Amino acid sequence: MARETFTLHKSYYNAIVKLPGELKGIFIDMICDYAFNDHQPDFTEYPILSAFWELVVPMVDANNARRENGKKGGRPSKKRNKD
User: Fold this and answer.
1) In this predicted structure, what is the pLDDT of residue 64?
2) Cα separation of 51 and 53, whole Å?
3) Residue 20 · residue 48 · CB < 8 Å
4) Three-state SS string across 17-82, please?
5) CA-based Rg of the chain, rounded to a whole angstrom?
6) How far from 3 is each of 11, 35, 83, CA to CA, in Å?
7) How far apart are CA 36 and CA 27, in angstroms?
């Protein structure tokens, strides 16, 4: 099932706005397609974006893993002694 949300950190934005022209939109599309649909991007046409990708993808993966783990309900309650 596709995800409904992902976190876009300000550090991603700070890097993306420095990309020239159309590369900004292309890179945002790559991030969204990966975060929502698990589609690995193809950097054949835009190899420079692979460098940016290496910085962004670990955080997207960590956020997705945290969300999935949260669906498990968290840590079980501790048993309390009744004294």
Assistant:
1) 72
2) 5
3) no
4) CCCCCCHHHHHHHHHHHHHHHCCCCCCCCCCHHHHHHHHHHHHHHHHHHHHHHHCCCCCCCCCCCC
5) 18
6) 22, 7, 46
7) 14
Element at 14 (helix H, strand E): helix 10-16
Query: Inter-axis angle of helices 23-37 and 48-70, to 10 degrees?
Result: 30
Q: The tokens of 21 are what? A: 């022209």
CB of 19 closer than 8 Å to CB of 51: no
> pLDDT tens digits, residue range 18-33?
999 999 999 999 999 9
Q: Which H or E run includes 8?
A: none
**pTM for this predicted structure:** 0.72
Specify the residue for token string 């309650």.
Answer: 77
Residue 7 structure tokens: 């976190």
